[in-house]
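Researcher: Please translate sequence to structure tokens.
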Amino acid sequence: MTGGPAGAFAGDALYAALLYTLVGLVAVRARPVVVAGVAAALCTALELFQLTGVPAALAEAAPVVSLVLGTTFQGTDLLAYLLGAVAAAIVDAFIRRAAGSSRGAPSSPSAGARPPRPPAGRPSR
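Model: Translation complete:
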């Protein structure tokens, strides 16, 4: 595993991709751009929460908390989260397009068909 700043950046991007996946599992019909926005917003909220010192205090009591909440604020993490969420959205959109799916669009075989025409003649009264 890569250590140092590059490894930390990659880990943060993967964390955002994980949150993208979790949000996508909850909001199945949401478009990838929406899921990416929610995932990036959640990551940003967690990063800003670190400024309060609460996650660091919780991590002292239960070290596993630091894996979820982190302990210290770093501005570069915000960029990594954004890039990770966008990359996950691109992969998701590509996979969905290759599978022939588009979220929220009609998917039945007759979805693109013209609506039936009314019967010819005069309507019955």
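Researcher: Any highlights?
Model: DSSP finds five helices and no strands in the chain.
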